[in-house]
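Section handout, structural biology tutorial.
Before the tutorial, make sure you can parse a SMILES string by hand: atoms, branches in parentheses, ring closures as digits. In the record below the ligand is copper (II) ion, and the chain has 448 residues. In the tutorial you will relate the predicted C-alpha cells back to the input. Do not try to memorize them.
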Amino acid sequence: MTASRRNFFWSSLTGLGASLIGRQALAQDTQQTPPQPRRQGYTPVRTLNGVTLPYEIKDGVKEFHLTAEEFEHEFAPGCVAKCWGYNGRTPGPTIEAIEGDRVRILVTNNLKEHTSIHWHGILLPSGMDGVAGLNQPHIKPGETFAYEFTLRQHGTHMYHPHADEMVQMAVGMMGMFIIHPKDGEPKPIDRDYCILMHNWALHPGTYRPDPSVMQNFDLWTFNSKVFPAIEHLVARSGERIRIRVGNLSMWNHPFHLHGHQFHVTGGDGGRWPEGQWRSEVTEVIGVGQARDIEFVGVPGDWAIHCHMSHHTMNAMGHEIPNTLGVKQGDAVSKVSALLPGYMAMGENGMAEHQNHTGHMPGPKNTLPMMMGKGPYGNLEMGGMFTLIKIRDDQAAGDYSDPGWYKNPQGTVAYKVAGPKAKSTPATNDHSIMDHSKMDHSKMDHSQH
Ligand SMILES: [Cu+2]
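Predicted structure of the complex:
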C-alpha cells in the first residue's frame, strides 16, 4: 500500500455503518455452529463462527477429509475477500479427537498451486509431519494425500500448510486440532471454546489479502472474523469455562479477560498438572503458540480482547498526522473538498469517528475502525474483541444470546458532576443518550 493511501482514514469512512452489522447478521452466522451436547465424557469444543469437522470410522480409524480451496470469506458484513482455507472456510473446520484414537486425514488440493499440511504440535512419525520437500512430496493441484497416525497426547493444537507457507497462511489456511484426554479431566469443563488469532493485510478497496505485509495489517481476527461479527461466548454463572487460544498471526497477542482471574492451565503441551497453573488476567499468546485459560463464570457482560490497542481496531491509516490538541477549524472540510473521504485525527481524540460511519462516503470493501453498540453507547472497538455473557439463569448447554446484562441496582458507574456551563463539550457526539440518569437495573436490554 502506498504511503499516500495510508494517509487517509479510509476505514473510518466507509458508508457501511455499524448499524448494518446487527443482530440478524450475527444470528445467521451463529446458526452455522450446531448445538453440541456433552458426549464421550468430554464437552465438545465450540469454535466461534466455525464448525467441527465430521468424521467416519473406517476399520477402527477416524477418517476426516479436508479440501484446500479458494472461496469468498466475509470478515463482517460489508467486507469480503478471496481467501484460501479448508472446506470453504477459514479457519478450516476444527478437528476434534481423543487421545489414543488412530486418525486418517485425507487432504485434497483444489488450489492452483501445490500445498501440504503440517500438524502443529502433534507427536507423529516424521513422514507425517507435513513439511513439503522434507517429509513428503508436495500435494499437487488435483491430488489427494492421506495422513495417518495415532494420537499419543492431548491438548490444543493447530494445522497449517508447510508449502509456500507465507502466502498460504496469509490468505487464511489454518485450523485447530483439539485432542481430549482419554480418561476425562479432574475438573470437568462445562464450556470449551476455541479461538484462532490471525492478521490480514486486506487493504481498503481490495479483495485479496496481501501476503507481503509483515507488520501493518488491516484486520485482526478471532477465527477470521472482526468485532462485532465475532460470536459472543455464553455461559452460566459458576460454570467452568475454558478458552483455547491459538496464534498463527505475525504478532504476539496479550489475550485479556475482564471480570475474572483465570488460570493458564495448558496449551500445546496438554493440560498441565494443577500445581503448574498460573493465576493471570492477561496471557501473551506468542506466534505459533496455543494456551488454554480456565475460569469459573461470574455474572455480567465481560470484554475479551487482545490488549494491543491497535489490534482492537479495524483498517486504519498508519502514517497519519497526529492532530491531537490541534484546533483544525474548517481545515478538514477544505481538504475534504479536494480529497473526498479525507479525515484527520480529531482535536480531542478519535471517539467521534464512529458516529461518522453511515453518513460519510468511504472506500469499498473495508470496515470502520471502530464499531459496535452496547446498551450505553458506542463500543469504539473492532478487530480482536468480543464478549462473554454470563448469566445466573442460562441453561446448561444453551448458547443462545441472553441479551445485555441487567446490572443489579446501584452497581453501575454514575455521574456525580458535569462540565461547567461555559466550557467546551468534550465531543460532538450526537448519538449517545445520557444514560446516567436512568436506572438500568429495571430496563430490559435484550431488546436493544
Ligand atoms: Cu494483538
